[in-house]
């Protein structure tokens, strides 16, 4: 596949979606290649239906392993419907979350096991990984406070988890970065959103100078 795959990761409230939306017009202006912006869970019709199941606050009885399997299932469908076709057509794919989210949230946060969740997803992704993962790091307390301020009363099933859950998620992300320093690059998300977006833009432009001119 000749396309370029970049993922955006981070704990809840890190502001990765906001930053992605801010830099998208600038990235489009600096390349002749088509840019596809997508998300997980979801991104395609079937995957979006699975997303609704996972995040519905009414599904409190959902088993942790069921949750992990559903994430892997939507990821597979997302790859088949969106990511792989775009990469085969030499497009640039920017995905708001990918496999690292499952390892951090279900492997670390739910304490199912990092290796166990990675194994489930290895089957789903068949070796397809981003060339760059932008990780937005922020203290769990700050991220949760942002969510309460911005979406009070409308938090999804994972956002409503206790602080300890989110701290485990962040710690797992940081461990993943240590294990994959060439692919996963850290952005300080505990800054003004405009500064965060500028840092992300600079990172991507410097990483792929032949793609973005």
Question: Could you explain how this protein is built, in words?
Answer:
This protein has 213 residues and is of the alpha/beta class. 55% of the residues lie in helices and 13% in strands. It has eight helices and five strands. The chain has helices at 16-29, 45-55, 64-88, 99-109, 114-125, 140-151, 163-179, 193-207, and strands spanning 4-9, 35-39, 92-96, 132-137, 184-188. A five-stranded parallel sheet has the order 2-3-1-4-5, sandwiched between helices. Helix 2 (45-55) runs antiparallel to helix 3 (64-88), helix 3 (64-88) runs parallel beside helix 5 and helix 4 runs antiparallel to helix 5. The longest helix has 25 residues, at 64-88. The model has no long low-confidence stretch (mean pLDDT 95).
- Radius of gyration, whole Å: 16 Å
Q: What does the oligomeric state look like here?
A: single chain
What is the third-level CATH name, the topology? Rossmann fold
Count up the domains. Answer: 1
CATH architecture: 3-Layer(aba) Sandwich
Estimate what percentage of residues fall within beta strands.
5-15%
Question: Termini separation (Å)?
Answer: 22 Å
Mean pLDDT: 95
SSE run: EHEHHEHHEHHEH
Number of helices: 8
List keywords for this structure.
213 residues, alpha/beta, Rossmann fold, 5-stranded parallel β-sheet
Provide a compact summary of the structure.
55% of the residues lie in helices and 13% in strands.
């Amino acid at each position: 596949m000749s396309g370029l795959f970049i993922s955006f990761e981070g704990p809840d409230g890190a502001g990765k979606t906001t930053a992605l939306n801010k830099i998208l017009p600038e990235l489009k202006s600096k390349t002749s290649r088509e840019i596809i912006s997508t998300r997980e869970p979801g991104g395609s019709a079937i995957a979006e239906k699975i997303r609704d199941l996972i995040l519905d606050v009414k599904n409190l009885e959902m088993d942790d392993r069921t949750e992990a399997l559903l994430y892997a299932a939507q990821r597979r469908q997302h790859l088949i419907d969106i990511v792989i076709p775009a990469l085969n057509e030499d497009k640039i794919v920017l995905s708001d979350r990918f496999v690292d989210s499952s390892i951090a949230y279900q492997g670390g946060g739910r304490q199912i096991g990092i290796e166990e969740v990675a194994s489930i997803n290895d089957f789903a992704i068949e070796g397809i990984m981003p060339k760059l993962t932008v990780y937005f790091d922020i203290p769990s307390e700050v991220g949760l406070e942002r969510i309460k301020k911005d979406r009070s009363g409308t938090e999804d099933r994972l956002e409503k988890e206790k602080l300890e859950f989110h701290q485990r998620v962040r710690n797992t992300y940081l461990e993943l970065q240590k294990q994959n320093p060439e692919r996963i690059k850290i952005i300080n998300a505990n800054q003004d959103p405009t500064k965060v977006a500028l840092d992300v833009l600079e990172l991507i432009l410097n990483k792929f100078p032949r793609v973005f001119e």
